[in-house]
Design goal:
With 293 residues, the protein is mainly α. Helix content is 78%, strand content 0%. The protein is built from 14 helices and no strands.
Amino acid sequence: MGERPGFPPNLVLLVSIVAVSTASILIRLTDAPPMAIATWRLFLSTLMLLPFFLRTGGVSKLRAMRRRDLLLLAGVGVVLAIHFATWITSLSLTSVSSSVIFVHVDPIFVALVSHFVLGEKVDRRVVLGIVVAFVGASIIAFSDLGAGGGNLIGDALSLVGGVALGTYILAGRRLRQRLDLTMYVTPVYAVSAVVLGVGSIAVGTPLTGYDPSVILMFAIIALVPMIFGHTLYNWALKWISAPVVSISLLGEPVGASLLAFLILGESPNPLALVGGAVTLAGILVCAYQPASK
């Protein structure tokens, strides 16, 4: 018989969605540069996971891993760094709702990679979903024109973050089939923290000298959306397919937009709401077909 999960995967995935929905709000409430937030988020997450990694013989397991898997782990860490660097920066340039919608184009990216790279057949429903999502994204971009070029740059950065997220989920699905959770996420988070730290130094972003209240926010961001968010849906990837995880994460734009309205008083303009709804509908259509196979 195959290995069985210790917890219901769908319930764990639901908890992770609620947790990641808090990320954009916590980031907005943190008085620090985007690259510093990203670096501290990954650094503290790595520290939180390190005791579990060491207790399960992580170091010896790393030494025994194939070179190919080690390179793949490092590559996923770099991709995760790109995701956080671009997406967290986008939150300082555009609205929460636009940012979290654009960053969740990953189901479309997963579908395209499945077709062009993995050779899987993509039917008309996926093509329709991509077209609808593109129309919705265009509406959001048009609505952001009135807010100046900064919003469009933020939208573009979030879109790059979405492509990186899709890559991260695809690679994670592959690696999680043969690596346990801490053996996968701890090295990936560590590599990502190093890449973000080097990037922060390169662009002149200070990583020290912050008030204790800011450090506390860094820790909360690491614990809630990272450990209970990203880490839990990485756990779910062993039991649930990548397309299903991608489509489930569409709950984040809804939750984040609601929290942005309640906590930050941020309400997107009506045209952006229409564009967001159209984009989410397109992503939903696109992601549904692969998940139903």
